[in-house]
Amino acid sequence: MTKNEIIALRETLGFTQAQFAECIQSRQNTVALWEMGKHKPSLVYQRILKELKEKTAGMTNKARTK
Q1: Which of 1, 7, 56, 60 is the most exposed place for a label (fewest CB within 10 A)?
Q2: Which domain, by its residues, includes 18?
Q3: How far apart are CA 33 and CA 55, in angstroms?
Q4: Looking at residue 59, what is its pLDDT?
Q5: What is the pLDDT averaged over residues 2-19?
Q6: Buried residues in 7-29 as b, exposed as e (16+ CB within 10 A)
Q7: Is the pLDDT of residue 12 over 70?
């Protein structure tokens, strides 16, 4: 997941970096580093972010069809 995709996912959820980090059981500083492109998520976090993105996409698609 790219830094822009991480930012978009967090913003879609309406979370601050701290809230997003808590949601995925990480730290705000780690999320900030991902979003700045200084570090990439580990394989574990890549999977977590992918699953969250898929769930979020499902939620937004349902909202659009209502």
Answers
A1: 60
A2: 3-65
A3: 24
A4: 73
A5: 97
A6: bebbeeeebebeebbeebebeee
A7: yes
> Could you give the 3-state DSSP secondary structure of residue 16?
coil
How many residues in the chain? 66
CATH number at residue 48: 1.10.260
> Where is pLDDT greater, at 60 or 1?
1
Per-residue tokens: 23: 């949601």
Count the helices and strands in the chain (H runs, E runs). Answer: 4, 0
**CA–CA distances in Å: residue 55 to residues 9, 17, 32, 37, 52:** 11, 19, 22, 24, 5
In total, how many domains does the chain have?
A: 1
- Type of residue numbered 40: K
Rounded to two decimals, the pTM is 0.86
- Tokens 């730290």, residue located: 27
